[in-house]
Design a protein that fits this description.
The protein has 250 residues and is mainly alpha-helical. It is built from 8 helices and no strands.
């Protein structure tokens, strides 16, 4: 017979570990399991990659015009991906609707718990737009032109925000605990956070060819940075959602 002490230890081990302040650690966000979500999940990187490749020549010729005209398309692709594939912030803690008892009337829609997808998407886009200013400052601190090419840097920051931050705002909302872990690189990897990490690393690596003495038109600011952002985002999203899902960077 197993002792009560052994049962107690087994039960304690089965509970999720807690952080130093007694709160459960942030959990990775899983992709919605519906067939439609799985189709969009695999179609999403194809659309982004195709858009970037088709616009590459125009990007080299006129970076500002190309980046600004492609933002609405990227926003539409990201929004469709988030709405179809990702659980909205608050949906994981929302209470499921109760079964009606005999004679009980159905509650009004306003009384049903759960996030409003349209509002969540709009708020995530607004927060991403606000975060663009912070990303612009970060790029300048890492060597982007300060007094010149302001529109180039700002539009590059906008693409980075829509790709890397929008899915996180959509799934995490404005939770202090979640964002403290994200900003300190302690959050678990999933498609959303993996995409942000990949985009950040890609932007950093994208700066490598700029100072090289190759005299190529595509070396001008910020073409290679944007190439790194898109490539890094797609790779980070893929690895974060599969191989490294649930792992933590530190």
């Amino acid at each position: 017979m197993s002792s009560p002490v052994g049962k107690g230890k087994a039960a304690e081990a089965s509970k999720p570990s807690k952080t130093m302040d007694g709160e459960a650690p942030t959990q990775p966000v899983r992709i919605i399991t519906s067939a439609q979500a799985q189709v969009v999940r695999h179609l999403h990187p194809v659309l982004l990659l195709s858009l970037f490749l088709l616009a590459f020549k125009a990007l080299v010729a006129d970076p500002v015009s190309t980046m600004s005209s492609s933002i609405p398309i990227v926003v539409a692709i990201q929004s469709a991906y988030a709405i179809t594939c990702l659980p909205a912030a608050g949906s994981q803690t929302a209470k499921p609707p109760k079964k009606l008892r005999p004679g009980e009337k159905k509650k009004a829609v306003s009384e049903i718990t759960g996030p409003n997808i349209a509002i969540t998407t709009l708020v995530a886009l607004i927060l991403s737009a606000i975060a663009t200013l912070a990303l612009h400052a970060v790029l300048v601190l890492f060597g982007a032109p300060f007094l010149t090419h302001v529109s180039h840097t700002f539009l590059c920051s906008t693409h980075l925000a829509v790709l890397g931050l929008f899915p996180l705002f959509y799934t995490r909302g404005v939770s202090n605990k979640d964002w403290l872990e994200i900003l300190s690189a302690r959050a678990p990897l999933d498609e959303a956070f993996g995409g942000l990490v990949g985009a950040g690393i890609g932007a950093w690596l994208g700066a490598v060819p700029i100072p090289l003495d190759w005299d190529r038109e595509w070396q001008k600011w910020p073409v290679t940075i944007l190439c790194g952002i898109y490539a890094g985002y797609l790779i980070g999203k893929l690895l974060g959602g599969t191989v490294f899902f649930g792992n933590r960077l530190c």
